[in-house]
Design a protein that fits this description.
Blueprint lengths: L4 E9 L3 H9 L5 H8 L9 E7 L2 E17 L8 E10 L9 E11 L2 E10 L4 H37 L2
Antiparallel strand pairs: 1-6, 2-3, 3-4, 4-5, 5-6
Helix pairs in contact: 2-3
Length: 166
């Protein structure tokens, strides 16, 4: 019995909300692809890569990332502005062996000079009952580590790129 799994993590970018929002909500935004490529030594590929180290074993696969929708909510009385890109990704090779991630990345100001990246994603382990068992043993930890690394890569990339334009 497959159950949808949830992963949540966050990071921040030490830049104001507006430039972070603009970088992540541009129609031709490639921040997610560029961030994951910049964090790996395999940047020559056309896809991004998800790679984590669990117990001394490196697990990874090439992934294809797309953004389904971007919701921009302006500041309203009593609330702060928020942008929500909805990235999704899956393995480019043998996708039936890897989970497909659906996510929402909430971007909002923490202070005048800091922006929060708050990730909430869901996936359904592949391979039915066997996949559920593998996910319970090690898969969820691999998924969490992969998502944490992905958000760290996006935050690091944004910090670097936005510092160049100051």
């Amino acid at each position: 019995m497959n159950k949808v799994k949830t992963i949540r993590c966050y990071d921040y970018v030490n830049h104001p909300y507006e430039p972070v929002r603009d970088s992540l909500s541009a129609e031709d935004s490639t921040v997610f692809q560029d961030a994951t490529k910049a964090a790996t030594s395999h940047a020559q590929t056309l896809t991004s890569e998800s790679r984590v180290n669990i117990g001394g074993i490196e697990v990874g696969t090439d992934i294809s990332i797309s953004v389904k929708e971007i919701e921009n909510r302006p500041k309203q009385s009593g609330s702060f502005p928020r942008t929500r890109p909805q990235p999704e990704w899956g393995a480019t090779k043998m996708p039936h062996l890897f989970p497909f991630m659906n996510a929402e990345l909430s971007i909002y100001p923490l202070t005048a000079k800091e922006t929060q990246l708050d990730f909430l994603g869901t996936y359904d382990p592949p391979l039915g009952v066997l996949g559920d068992a593998l996910d319970a043993i090690v898969g969820h930890r691999i998924g969490e580590a992969s998502v944490h690394r992905f958000i760290q890569n996006v935050a690091t990339y944004l910090r670097s790129e936005l510092s160049k334009s100051e």
